[in-house]
Amino acid sequence: MSALTRLSLANRGLVALIALVISGFGIYAIPSLKQQLFPSIELPAAFVSAVLPGASPETVESQVTKPIEDAVKGIDGIDSLTSTSRENVSSVVVLFEFGTDIESAVNQVTTSVNRIQSQLPENVDPTVFAGGTDDIPAIVLAASGGTDEADLLAKLNATVVPELNGIAGVRDTQVTGARAKQVVITPDLAKMGAAGISPASLTQVLQANGVSIPAGAVVQADQSLTVQVGTPITTVEQLKDVYLTGTRGPVQLGDVAAVESKLPAAESFTRTDGVNSLGIAVTARPDGNPVLISHQVRDMLDQLQKDSGATLTVITDQAPFVEKSIESLTTEGLLGLVMAVVVILIFLLSVRSTLVTAVSIPLSVLVALIALWVGDYTLNLLTLGALTIAVGRVVDDSIVVLENIKRHLEYGEEKVQAILGAVREVTGAVVASTLTTVAVFAPIALVGGLVGQIFSSFAITVTVALLASLVVALTIVPVLAFWFLKPPPPGTDTEAVRKAAEEKELRNPLQRAYLPVIRFATVRRWTTIAIGLLVLGGTVLLGRGLETNFLDQSGQDSITISQEMPAGTSLAATDEAAKKVEGVLKARAEIATYQVTVGGSSANPFAGGGGAGTASFNVALAEDTDVEQISGELRT
Length: 636
Description:
Strand order of the largest sheet: 14-13-18-19-17
Mean pLDDT: 84
Radius of gyration: 36 Å
Strand content: 15-25%
Number of helices: 21
Low-confidence stretches: 601-609
Structural class: alpha+beta
């Protein structure tokens, strides 16, 4: 490895140019890195959701869940199969072995479910989908206003949805909580009886009308024209004009039945700050940047409200938490950089040496950022945490190399020989210490399964930063030492300079403080070992009392509340119970806005809703609110 140093000293200008190019690429890569809370995680699972309105959990299980389970359990690569049957909703989760092509697996599940469609109740239409962290919406809005729910939905689909879908990086914009209008025909049995019409004939008439049927072709000269019989029914008035055949002559449908277009019975309620509303979920593509999407959506809100006439409120947003977390970790990293430089200055007692050594920190970090950019990784909590860890470690190699170079120069050796000899002496130790640390982190990148998906970017970041620091220490640091460190004046007595340097080291306050410690440790060896074991035991005992969690809530700007009523509770009763919770939320100044969804039939793991007896709340907090404190107080 010392050959790298010899090559670098012989090509000092080239080494400097390479360092500048790396710095330029790093500065270019930083703004291009996508920011998100976690690395992209694709769950190796397919979710099958089916809704059977008005059915009990037992009915859902026997008529929907069991047939779906039987249909999919023979698919290759299944690790486990779990299902949940609750009021109105069936949810089947097919978990595959890691490494399975999830797109192909979802297609197989879809094919299997479609095959047993005839065995399911007539109004059940199962939905198959996959899920991952990329399916978590970048931002969720609440929309209220309009004359009614259908009017609001039409305005949102006409104005807001197309504009949001036009944002670069947006995969999909969904309006949730809306009910589509349906045509309801209510027969007047007395009038139908008077006209001699059987209620059963309604089905036949509806099936026979409003359908376009191919009726052959008309050939004239050199032209052939297709013929269709019948026209589709597009309005309620057209439906009213359909004729029924009775024993006393033809009668129009509108004369013997009430025909009206209206919303179906509500299966859920959604309110924002106490006002009925719809939800708008904006999801980013895998290559999209949720933070940039959030900023663009917020910039467009005023114009979107003018165009749609609806009131739009931000309910949940990834961007503030991501940005705050990244800012916090960046600040900690920069503080670590400053403190590392200060410590180097104190121990080396040389501004020139400190500056030379400090170069290795930003250069190693830039190389790690370039690796993230090239590997299409994101700037998230784990990669930033890895960079923060690496800041303190990447400078170690450079300190060892530079300190030995400085010592050799103080001994009066010729500059090039001093640098080569100093690097040769410590190369083995520097390489061994770096590879030892790399050996701890690098295998994490090779771990399979969910752990590997989460922590691979962390391991790669630390590994690249450490290897970059090793290369910097053996190439760039010797070149900078050649340029900036001053050897003793030429012609001085080398032996005399060496003796003077050694005496100076012995008078160094650090040496004088450290030598007694070394003397104690070498003379009282068993006592030293006992002290070490006591410290180890005490650390283990104290560590057992530490609280552990995956992600601390500090910096989070929203919380969720779930409310579950006893089985069999009606939607109206759940709604009344939810209004009591809303009353608590309205009274808190720390809460900026909230949205509640009462009931619902969604089996999507990334959406709320779980039957008539549940309610879920998304609560956006005011700035600088203590999340732990407000969560505890709200729970009480």
